Amino acid sequence: MVHKTVSERFFFFNNIIVELWVVFEGLQLAWAHGYEYLAVQIDSSDAFQLLSPSSPESPIPIVRSIANILHRAWFVEFSLVPREANFAADYMAKFVPHQDSLLTIFEVPPTSLTGIRHRDVCGSLNSP
Predict the structure, then answer these.
(1) What is the pTM (predicted TM-score) of this model?
(2) Which helix (H) or strand (E) holds 69?
């Protein structure tokens, strides 16, 4: 039996909360831009389990907030994507554009993402 220390449990829980906040912020942004159909890919199995299905009665406040935003007039589908197949999202999360904004919306993905997207789609064995 593996026993986790209090700090390990706290770190684990905080990571899930951060993942859920990112989902919540993304949902708010998508709603504000008028999207009616949305596919949300999550690479955290723990966050995915909390949102499948999300419940307005969850003991976790951010899960309740996500559940409430999902009840709007739109279709949102969550899917679990392995981290190994999600390098493009990881790259974009670390991509720093040359501006002072906290948020960047790309109409077209950066050209530096092309090879990474190919790797995600084809798998690491076929990567360039």
Answers:
(1) 0.70
(2) helix 61-70
